[in-house]
């Protein structure tokens, strides 16, 4: 049994996988380091925890795609649906609008901080609706609490 399987079996994500450390690295070739923008923050997580998260992510993605639970327009973060594909789709929509004499605009935003603002209750409902075993739901219920920096 793998560590990931054990985590699911115990319905728990160990606290030492939830703790991250931030390292501050100065950007090179700066005359002065008196401003925060002259530094780079690197967030470090437990390597084994990151590997297990990757395995879990791959399994979830496979299940969601195989059962048509991902909208066709969802591109970011999925295998074979990368950022360049998003650019191609966006270009297609813009050009299609031009053909119809429509004006086209785009709104872009950074979702790097999406997970901390994710509605955890909603995530658990989605997992339940997707037909995941209750152990998976309980695992994620434990996974999303008490993340520490």
Describe the protein in words:
This protein has 149 residues and is mostly helical. The protein has one domain (3-143). The protein has 7 helices and 2 strands; from the N terminus they run ααββααααα. It has helices at 3-10, 15-18, 47-66, 83-99, 114-117, 120-129, 134-143, and strands spanning 21-26, 39-44. It has a two-stranded antiparallel sheet with strand order 1-2. The protein is flat, with a radius of gyration of 20 Å. The two termini are 30 Å apart. The model has no long low-confidence stretch (mean pLDDT 76).
Largest sheet, in brief, is: 2 strands, antiparallel
Succession of helices and strands: HHEEHHHHH
* Quantity of strands, as a count: 2
Helix content class: 40-55%
- Summing up helix and strand content along with how strands pair, one would put the structural category as mainly alpha
- Strand residue percentage: 5-15%
State the domain count: 1
Radius of gyration: 20 Å
Count of runs of 4 or more consecutive helical residues = 7
Brief descriptors of the model:
149 residues; two-stranded antiparallel sheet
Blueprint (SSEs and pairs):
Layout: H1 3-10, H2 15-18, E1 21-26, E2 39-44, H3 47-66, H4 83-99, H5 114-117, H6 120-129, H7 134-143
Antiparallel strand pairs: 1-2
Helix pairs in contact: 1-7, 6-7
